[in-house]
Amino acid sequence: MVHASDGLLIDQEGRIVLIQRRSETYLGFWAIPGGMVEKEETIEEALVREMKEEVGVEVKPRKILGVFSDPDRDPRGRVISTVFICDYEGELKAGSDAGAIKLCTVEEALTLNLAFDHHFIIRCYQNWIEKKGSYWSNKSI
Q1: For 32, which of 40, 54, 69, 122 is 20 to 30 Å away at the CA?
Q2: How does pLDDT run along the chain (141 residues), one tens digit per residue?
Q3: Domain count, the chain
Q4: Which helix (H) or strand (E) holds 28?
Q5: What is the pTM (predicted TM-score) of this model?
Q6: Continuous segment of H or E residues that includes residue 135
């Protein structure tokens, strides 16, 4: 089992940051930036490292949106992901796994070809904006 840390990065206008995947899995699809937690890291340390590597910014986690653990959420194998809602500082620039970066509204994001279960996660964020609360794989929104 692998753990991942993903960041819903929110800019000052309330738009979210998405990356276009360069990796073989979901190549060309849009995704919430994030990555795998390394053996010696906390999930929060992985979040900070992955956001710096993928989009070039420093992040400040504000809240945990939820934990997403559907066994079928990642075709590469069993991945449990903690998704943080974050503020960020710095200039966005595509790094490691990111072919491109897009700032968009939640509504725009939901019209894109999104990787993994990221449609569901963004819909959870959309619901969080109105109702707050935490979300997870089998909680209906």
Answers
A1: 40
A2: 689 989 999 999 999 999 999 988 999 999 999 999 999 999 999 999 999 999 999 999 999 999 999 999 999 999 999 999 999 999 999 987 788 999 999 999 999 999 999 999 999 999 999 988 888 777 777
A3: 1
A4: none
A5: 0.92
A6: strand 135-136
> Residue 103: beta bridge partners?
17
Looking at residue 87, which CATH number applies to its domain? 3.90.79.10
CB of 80 closer than 8 Å to CB of 3:
yes
- Angle, CA 70 vertex, CA 68 and CA 39 arms, to 5°: 60
* Closest-CA residue to 1 (of 61, 67, 58): 67
Count of CB atoms within 10 A of residue 116's CB?
A: 25
